[in-house]
Amino acid sequence: MHEDYLNRPEPTEDRLMHLSLTMLAFALLTTAFLWPVEDAVNGSGLHLVIMWSILGMLHGLRCWRASKHDKDPESLLAPFGLLDVGVLLIAIGHVVGTIVVFREGGDRRSALNLTFEWLGLLIALRLFRSLSMARRQTEQTFQVIVAIAVGLAAYGIWQHHVFYPEQSAWYLAQRTELDHEMARSGGAGLMRATEIISELQKEGIPLDGANRILWENRLLSSSEPFATFSLANTLAGVLATALVLMVGQLSFGRMSNPRMTMFSVAISMLQIVLVAYCLILTKSRSAWAGAAAGIIILTIVRSRTSAGLKLLRWGVFGAAGVSGIVGLAVFSGALDKEVILESPRSLQFRLLYWSGTLKMLEQHPLTGAGPGNFRQLYLQHKADESSEEIRDPHNFVLESWSAGGIIGLVGLTILILSTLRSLIATDSDLADSTPDEPIRKKPNRIIIRGLLLGFAIHFGWEWINGQPFTEDFVNRLLLLAGVVLLMAQSSGQCMRLDRTSGLAATVAMMVNLLAAGGFEMPAVMLLLLVCATLGTSKTEPVSGTATAKLSRKLIPLSHSFLCLGVAIVVLKFGLVPVSSMERQLLLAEDMLNRQRNPRAALESYSKAAESDPLAVIPRQRIAELETYRLKELESLQSLQRESDESGSPDEAEVASKINQLIPNAIEACNMLISADRRSSYAFRTKADCLATAARLQQDSGMRKEAIIEQQRVVQMYPSSLEHWIELIDLYLADADTIGQWGQQIQSASDRALELNEINHQWGHQDQYLSEQQMQLLNQAREMSNP
């Protein structure tokens, strides 16, 4: 490729369309990393899926028009390769898994959202595979990734050194003042205490119980940055992958151009230092292992020795073999809990997650749990020693199986094998070096525009959805640090990127995902797929046969129609209902927490449920609020009984409200169960509602129904100590027929004591039994053994 080709003029119309599509691709790539991707299960990224679909449609039309006029040989859709087949099978697995979720009554909204996300990833992969057929687009894509990673690193470093100390100081001051006001005699500080509580609730801060302990431990005892994401591990995986890319580019650039300016090297080194330092701050061992694996691969390949390449090949085969043997051992039961408990503490929990996941998959081997439905089925098999109710198995192989069944697992296997096949290729194939290719001195303006447009899309979408530009907006400008350093390179040289760097970065992300969540996080998998594209792409020759020309016309046109269809489906069944539901949810939360108007909040929750017939969250909020209203009436009734004014008008009014609210509350719980029949929380909410109603009306029939529902809860989640205590409490409340529950009370008490002992052994302080709960257990054991 020669410099006159790189700088050759194009027809004005085609050139503008070509540049705009590439710029939009870079903009969407940037936007993908600016929101909490862990929330994809709730539909927060569906607008990006539609944008990817529209961009894919435009690209297909451009390729079709270029083939029609028989010009611009770069205007081709990339041939369908192993990467495409793998991702296509993963997407198909999600579709099949979603059908199963609909049939079995799981969380249908989560399943649909994640399936839409994988359709968007497939379209994005096809787009970047086509763009990477030209060398300059490959280098531009790399620069965009680096700019994003450096911006995330700068933001993360600020969080570690500034955000955490400030947030901790503010929270401690609020808690101290709240405790002081609550302790004032005569209720003198009640008004101020209410204001503080409202402010804490507005920030989503739990006020008491185990959730408060967990929240305080995370804030006060940790300082791991998370940047724009919700978890430090997500940021760590992105940084580790980008770090390997940057090291690979710098080493290849120095090899291919020894006369590289010191300024360009200094900029690259500064970028590497920022990313590496933030990666260290995340304390993510899986990401560190991934970065180390990628850098080792670069070192071996860069050595250009036959011994090193043989070591790489045998290392790849050996790692794959060991992974297969370990997986078979766990699946068959040869690797049992005793072996797990002898492993280092940092690995124990991962092994417990995986063993529980494999037990779940034994019962659902073909279809898995379905997209977004892992937790519901996993809790039935969760190890007693594990305290977290994880949302994913922290292993992308197991997660692909859980989400997409066997089809999804095969798709991921093909994706992995495609990467490994390229990795063990010959040294000359990996290098893909073109000595006569010039090194461009300035990053193209399309990169800068794409990055800035990506920020504009993200913040514009936040503004459209009513999220105000708070003080954090100024802090988030640190994300532009990568853009600033990229612009500084305009006076230096832009180094080339070889295929080895892309493959090593892909391996780094895969190693990280072996022990971390991310398979259902769009930005994480998009980065993996783009890096795989950078490592496997080659410029494809253009065939002049009649069949090839016909394919060049029909395939792009079919691609455009499919992308348009995806956009319409996601808009109608995804973005519109989810956005409407979220707006009503925000209004309801404001009514409940700030305006203290439960009735108006309940109305908004009902509208949210009507906006999205598949959504679980609004129905959960309705059931919780209706049950809470019953508990308020119970407290009011208790106060009236303590007074001597029986038969007063107030008592009659309370009785009337009770008769009115109980059917509404039970119906709300049934609606929650119908939205997700796999969720133990839905049945627990109904058990709590029935128990409260039974106390209000002194109805033994309702009390027995509550016991039956709670028995179902402990069957669905047998390792929850809290659920067993609630069941024992219900047993003891059924005083009229307590004799018939004698054996069940004894079994439940033994199980609760067993779990409490395990929690003490493993140091799960937030799950220890309180003195009151221990007294309840002693009472239960005495009554079951008269």
In short:
The protein contains 31 helices and no strands. With 786 residues, it is mostly helical. Helix 23 (546-593) runs antiparallel to helix 24 (598-611) and helix 27 (680-697) runs antiparallel to helix 28.
SSE topology:
Elements: H1 3-6, H2 12-31, H3 46-69, H4 82-104, H5 108-131, H6 135-183, H7 190-202, H8 209-220, H9 232-256, H10 262-282, H11 285-303, H12 306-332, H13 337-341, H14 345-363, H15 374-378, H16 396-423, H17 427-431, H18 445-464, H19 472-476, H20 481-488, H21 499-513, H22 522-536, H23 546-593, H24 598-611, H25 617-642, H26 649-675, H27 680-697, H28 700-716, H29 721-733, H30 742-762, H31 771-784
Helix pairs in contact: 2-3, 2-6, 2-18, 3-5, 3-23, 4-5, 4-16, 5-22, 5-23, 6-7, 6-9, 6-10, 6-18, 6-20, 9-10, 9-11, 9-21, 9-22, 11-12, 11-21, 16-21, 21-22, 23-24, 24-25, 25-26, 25-27, 26-27, 27-28, 28-29, 29-30, 29-31, 30-31
